[in-house]
């Protein structure tokens, strides 16, 4: 044998002896408030068929994580699925991974609730599967350094993060094949890097590509570990994957390949690998998530700037590879600054959590305390707290579910405190954390949240008898993916238009969506004061082209309060034909004991004659979840409105009453005016991205009663609006 032949034979022999461990994990989640048919479809398309295949390959080890909403659904609808998981856990084929039970973002909730959510999951798994989870899935892999301490406090031994976390913290790609210790205040946990390349290969490329990549990572000492942990739903729920993964047999081929290559490719679990392999060292991980999340957290202009910078750097591939780990976006908490609605939900949840904490000592033995905590935990489910490319905050049914849980928790706490149905309270507090005080006016039926510094507006209206926030609206905003809709070819279903490549096309659920790219200059809430001219219509108000004569719409109001009333006042100007005219506006918001109605009285004084053809108007908003259902409509005691659906626009003369009704929930919110008003009404519809393409989503409707000022008593105008919420 020649020397070259001997060398070649030795290399092949060494290659055959190289080994590697693979941790294969799946994370399954459906949010609190998602539709029942979505749970059922996900079960039929993904959860069950995946387990069917895995059971046929007992040599393949896997780590599975399911969130609390899924466990709750399985218990009620498919308990046999949980029995199968228990058997596979007992045999050692599956390691059940823990987490926060209702999939909260640990950085968005109090530490006490984070520990309680993790403990809730650990106790459930111990009882249901006979084993306490050693590790936990970190929601959206949103990491902040204090999480090491929080997890350790809750008994967690390990977690898994994206390789992005480690790379932007200073590690090299060749250092990501094991686990690291990290700590906070001396409390340690183990952290595994999830390899991005494996996430993109599986299950979208041929099985042989994944096996070849794993062979590249194998070493002679066999100490390397490759972690593949990603969404369970990509195996059947994601578009096209049920056919490729099951009908065409991708998953069967993958598990077959893992079994046939088991001599050098060992499937293992996190716990087993930790027990036999020491840590690679200690590291400290910066605030991070997966790459896309960090980009989404940026304001829209900065997302565009980052995209442009990356495109320019990619012209030099070598340079781009060097700087890419450090060219990243913001971090998750930026969503609370980017979206007022996200901040509102989070601060509303914190208010309930703090109240619950104050009640713990006084009511420790009361079982209702556990009911309130469960509802609070459900209200911490992360999905509606943020928005990326798909859904999230833009899905009004998810926001509604969170408010329902939080308001219901408050209702339980009302009972725990023995709150009288006839009591009325006013609280002055910096509710939203902006440095300015808000006011909370509350009785046994309603909780009303008022912002003096944002136009003296009413931004939340919680109805307690049937927990529901009528002001769960969403402002229309510019999003980066709207750029594609404006300039790209639109693919409606399977038909394409234009001559752009598939990468330049945008999928849309209907034609003409670009005409709905209207953006609001202020938050769409109630009691926003307008001074308009007579040409204003529902159409011009909808597209924000109605001329505004006053400076009250976003002005700062002075606020005072007494036992059942908040008074908001401001001195400003209204533009007349000869220049600005001084105007003083006062509005009192009064909540009576025992009523689900609020009285708003306006007194407006002008320093002279009213400008000609100027109308005073008030924006009122409400969200009943859809604008296209026949059981949700406008009505009036004055005229037959023909059950006009909430997604329609209209203008009406001389109304003293208008209401929005929801026959499905049997709820109604109405407004009565002491003086007849011209009323404009229109819907708020956002354009957002979904798995099926860009789509319109109903985010509420706006009702604007207006009164002509130059036909009233000289220099004075007064009227009263009674807003009443009823359950019928």
Characterization of this structure:
About 1% of the residues have low confidence. The protein has 21 helices and 28 strands. The protein is elongated and about 95 Å long. Helix content is 31%, strand content 28%. The strands form five sheets. Strands 18, 19, 20, 21, 22, 23, 24, 25, 26, 27 and 28 form an eleven-stranded antiparallel sheet that branches. With 728 residues, it is α/β, with parallel strands linked by helices. Among the domains are: 271 residues, 7-stranded beta/alpha barrel, CATH 3.20.110.20; 35 residues, no CATH class; 200 residues, Distorted Sandwich (Beta-galactosidase, Chain A, domain 5), CATH 2.70.98.10. The relative contact order is 0.08.
The amount of beta strand, in percent, is 25-35%
The CATH architecture of one domain can be named as: Alpha-Beta Barrel
Radius of gyration: 29 Å
What's the number of helices?
Answer: 21
Shape: elongated
Average of the residue pLDDT scores = 94
What is the CATH top level name of one domain? Alpha Beta
Given helix and strand content, the structural type is alpha/beta
Distance between the terminal alpha carbons, to the nearest Å?
94 Å
From the structure provided, what is the oligomeric state, counting identical versus distinct chains?
Answer: single chain
Do you know the CATH topology of one domain? 7-stranded beta/alpha barrel
Low-confidence stretches: 495-503
Q: Give the total of beta strands.
A: 28
